[in-house]
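Can't paste images in this forum, so I'm doing it all in text. The chain is below; anyone willing to post the predicted structure tokens underneath?
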Amino acid sequence: MTQDTDAPEAEPQPEPQPEPEPQPEPGEPTLPHGVGPWPGGRGTWPDDPRYDPELLAHGDTRNVVDRYRYWRMEAIVADLDLHRHPFHVAIENWQHDLNIGSIVRTANAFAAETVHIIGRRRWNKRGAMVTDRYQHLRYHPDVADFVEWARAESLPIIAVDNIEGARAVDDVELPERCVLLFGQEGPGLSAEALAAADVAVEITQYGSTRSINASAAAAIVMHEWVRRHARR
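Text version of the structure:
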């Protein structure tokens, strides 16, 4: 039998395309490499509801510590809630201060209980690098509302500002349960906030500048609390 050379050739079938890898949430910082898919494939996945099937299948490049690799965001928050520290952080937000995001990120790093935003609800979250999703936030419309909450919780208010009469933070006994209150970059804390504080502390400086960046000051004072009270 002869072959019909005029018969049309079969059209090549397109190769199956791999499933797209899950993309990080908008603004989610990613590591250059992170970790790839769970070794060994689906049959070796942990039988644990804390793990996210998408991350197990495609890898995890989020900026989280190794303990939380492949975990769902909700599971990470729940685990953090088991060992958050008993200090709170509060920030006045009257001028849309760009430092608030960095302060939230530092509060997350030191496992603060809650970050309180006083004043405007809107703030620039870019500096938080998505850590606000893992950190409890509470909003207060004004200083009076914040102070009422703090008094109801029996939490002393520690104002951080380099004002006349402020005491060096390294010479002050920071309570284990307290609120560290920070003001705006430039003007610092409002008069109303300072009047409500139980004590005002400042960071000792040795150079020519009158003040340091608000987010840097917040990191120093939070670490001072952690150095004294946190259990390793």
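Residues 120 and 203 are 27 Å apart (CA to CA). The radius of gyration is 25 Å.
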